[in-house]
Protein: Signal recognition particle receptor FtsY
Amino acid sequence: MSFFKKIFSSEKKETLDKGLEKSKSSFLSKLGKAVAGKSKVDDEVLDNLEEVLVTSDVGVNTTLKVIERIEARVSKDKYLGTEELNLILREEIAGLLSETNSGEEKEFVIPANKKPYVLMVVGVNGVGKTTTIGKLAYQFKKQGKKVVLGAADTFRAAAIDQLQVWADRVEVPIVKQQMGSDPASVAFDTLKSAVNQDADVVIIDTAGRLHNKINLMNELTKVKRVMQKVVGDAPHDVLLVLDGSTGQNAFEQAKQFTKATEVTSLAVTKLDGTAKGGVVIGISDEFKIPVKYIGVGEGIEDLQVFNKYEFVDSFFKQ
Structure:
């Protein structure tokens, strides 16, 4: 496939390669064992491959789809060699990701016809939600956009404090109230402030409590409803942040949040410290929600726009 021959932006690609090193090494090591002593792709290789994908956190349903696709290619070409398996996997997984992730995005962009562009961020505590918001604010500001943050996670004082730290670091305004305040009230004030300042982007942090899904659902619904009193079609994006290092637990969180609210995009963080990078493939396919951003390091520049071709290239790089 020609798209794997593209020259990717070198600095960003190096960061991505490094960030996915543990996932890639683990996967290729397992793949090597799966095809050891085999010259062609047969039933035994496919069985072994199935196990490799599942244990790489790709997820059972997505794994079965990939295996079916490869089986179809094997039935057409009875002498498909194991040395071609890596390329075939690249092609089939990129094809699978294409069903949800449409473009070849490389930059942090927002629609020109939405001002302010309202981004509501959801996710449980500890997944890197506040850090993701800070890094997004940095990227949008770097493009010359005027950004306003809203601290609507009022359940924890630490959440408000952490967002303030990022607001100070990136030098963007933040709207906040006391801990325990009504999150919808904070969201309302944030949008009012953003409109008054003629801001381009508003990023609203929200609480990440899953112990009572009904309360979470009601709270997020109320936040949306109140925001729409200021900006009629807000929020324009509901971004769910997931910790890639938690593997299958990230699937469960995605399941709970998609039941609680309409999630329109995903950010998968902490991929640099884990061998569970396959979770990006599985979650994107399973929930049919595009992965918009991935976190591949702790640096402020290490939040990247997800590009399926670059990701697959790094994941399978030999």
